[in-house]
Amino acid sequence: MAHDGGRGTQGRGRAVTDHDDVRDLLAAWAFGALEPAEERLVPPHLAECESCATEAERLRATVRLLDGPPLAEPPSPLDTLLTGALRVRPAPPRVARHAAPYAAAVAGLEALLPELAGRWSTPVVHDWDVHATVAHLLAADEHLALRLGIDARVPGARIDEDADWADAWERRTAEVIAHEHGRTPEETVAAWSAQAAALLGTPYARDPELAAGTTLLMGLRLPVTAHFLARAFEAWIHTDDIGRALGLAVPPPPEEHLGQLVGLAVRVLGTVLGAEAPPVLFAVRGGEEWVLGSHSDPVAAELTLDAVDFCLLVGGRYAPDTVPRDSTGDAAAVRNVLERAASLSWL
Amino acid sequence: MESTDGTTSVQRPADAELHRRLVYGDESALAEAYGAYGGLVQAVAVRVTRSRAAAEDVAQEVFAQLWSRPYAFDARRGSLRTWLSLLAHRRAVDWVRGEARHRKDARADDLALYGIPDASPGPAEAVVDRERALLLHTALAELPQPQREVVHLAYFAGRTYRQAAVELGIPEGTAKTRLRTALRALAETLADPPDPAWEDGA
Questions:
Q1: How close, in Å, is residue A146 to chain B by CA atoms?
Q2: Which of residues 78-117 of B touch A (CB under 8 A)?
Q3: What is the DSSP string of A3-26?
Q4: Do A68 and B50 touch (CB under 8 A)?
């Protein structure tokens, strides 16, 4: 029997199809969720089909009760609504551009905290659980805090200009993690959060000229602005680590901040590669491009990465062999750049 | 993007971008979310609570929740619209049940102190309707999530069942069936209420 799929004008067969079709639409009809063309089909069928008419009335009476009596609905004034929300979770402090990524990254970790209840012992990275990861951030941020004149929160902090920075870094992390192990996660979070607020409250977070002065931290002599970006980078990477451990998707930082983080990583990578390396044209997708290595020789290769993937590579969360990339030209030159980038990871 | 449980993942870049800004503390994202969905949230709350003031409180709670616990919303699992609608409904039902308990307690107190029987305002019929409506909204809040989602989009959010199907990434037939199953279950709840306590004092 030919079935043209449309509304034909044949007799009894059509009536049965109509009945099934309309019956399937009755709930949507009762909810007012039909397009006009389908809605038109319903009343004529109800007029000639008692079972559908009964069901339709029953369903519609139910929806009428859901509706409730008509009430005009002026919306809440926006400002009271926002004020209420901000009382529960304050907005990040307003800071200069170079400190905004850190302010946002701190907010991003704080936003994750409500999801951590009862999960503080989940393994995250290295041999740290969630609690230890936050304790690590407390230790990691402390170096800049001390340099900017903020008192340490955990006993035993020292500024030792002569020590190998990597040793000092690891030693201090281990000390702070051990110390915080004897306290509750909430106390560790409070200490980290207070230290972060103190960093963002210094003139260095608000005054770009003041923060333009350089200081030696983590083996790098860079402006304080760059050290704030390094804090942001670290906070984000570890928040991402925690998120992955808990099965939560941590979004990447806002584009503007991501751009600043990439800029810092490229700057450091360029320095580490040096002026003799075979030049590679390096680009992040949707962003800028740079020549890494020698500027006096023709470019030997081109390499493109996503901004987030590049940051994860520099942060030690991607291996140079497996990070997604597009490249052309001298494979050795490309590999050199990727391996140097991965070697930057201190996290 | 890998899907976690084999279901179709519908791309929602606008929701993902809004979520990103909320996570990183951008208040303008909260204002935008309110602009886009504040009306829906209040409409849902008003239908359930039948009170403008209560609906405002519910809206306040819902958006404070979105702002202070952004990770409670997962952009991979559904739209922000659906999530806010479901949350508003749940909070509104909680509010009404709280009110019903207070009213019951107040009536019990009156009866004990003064021997005054039920003195609810308005005609008896309106009281019955209000309690039956609460019954329905409570039952709605307890329907399986897939049915609840279609009902919220098709009813509260004013979508056609076809639009709801697209937004949820399901076939149109499935959307129709879920609406039918849901509404029939709700109608059944009225015919056969689950809690005998609903019959006293009505």
A1: 26
A2: none
A3: --SS----SHHHHHHHHHHHHHHH
A4: yes
| Partners of residue A223 on adjacent β-strands | A214
Segment A19-24 mean pLDDT: 92
B25 phi-psi bin (left φ>0, alpha ψ -120 to 50, beta other): left
Q: Are B85 and B55 in contact (CB under 8 A)?
A: no
Question: Structure tokens of A347?
Answer: 């996290």
Give A 51-80 residues with CB within 8 A of chain B. 58-59, 61-63, 65-69, 71-76, 78, 80
pLDDT at A1: 46
Mean confidence (pLDDT) of chain A = 91
d(CA A335, CA A320) in angstroms, rounded, equals 7
Give the pLDDT score at A22: 93
Q: Looking at residue B119, what is its pLDDT?
A: 54
Q: Residues of A with CB below 8 A from B183's CB?
A: 27, 30-31, 59, 62-63
CA distance B58 to B38: 11
Separation CA A108–CA A142 (nearest Å): 19
- Identify the three-state secondary structure at position B51: coil
- Interface residue of A66, A79, A113, A246 to substitute, partner B, most B CBs within 10 Å: A66
B residues 150-189 lying closer than 8 A (beta carbon) to A: 151, 154-155, 158-162, 164, 173, 175-177, 179-180, 182-184, 186-187
Q: What are phi and psi of B152, to 5 degrees?
A: -65, -45
Which residue of B38, B56, B183 is in closest CB contact with A59? B183
Which residues of chain B make contact with A257, given a CB cutoff of 8 A? 24
- ipTM of the complex model: 0.87
For B43, the token pair is 């409409």
Note the pLDDT tens digit of each residue in A41-73.
999 999 999 999 999 999 999 999 999 877 665
**Residue whose pair of structure tokens reads 């030049």 in the numeric block:** A279
The one-character DSSP state at B39 is H
If one counts every other C-beta atom within 10 angstroms of the C-beta of residue A4, the result is 7
The answer to whether residue B23 neighbours chain A at the CB level (below 8 Å) is: yes
pTM: 0.85
Q: Nearest Cβ partner of B74 from A25, A84, A249?
A: A249
A chain contacts of residue B25, beta-carbon cutoff 8 Å: 91-92, 103-104, 107-108, 111
A27 contact B CB<8A:
yes
B110-139 pLDDT, tens digit each: 666 666 555 555 566 677 788 899 999 999
pLDDT beyond 70 at B180? yes
Written as one letter, the residue type at A38 is: E
Q: What percent of chain A has pLDDT over 70?
A: 92
Span A325-330, average pLDDT: 96
How confident is the model over B80-100, as pLDDT tens digits? 999 999 999 999 999 998 887
**Read out DSSP for B55-88?**
HHHHHHHHHHHHHH-GGGS-TTTS-HHHHHHHHH
Token pair belonging to B157: 């959010």
Please give the residue of chain B at the shortest CA–CA distance from A246. Answer: B71
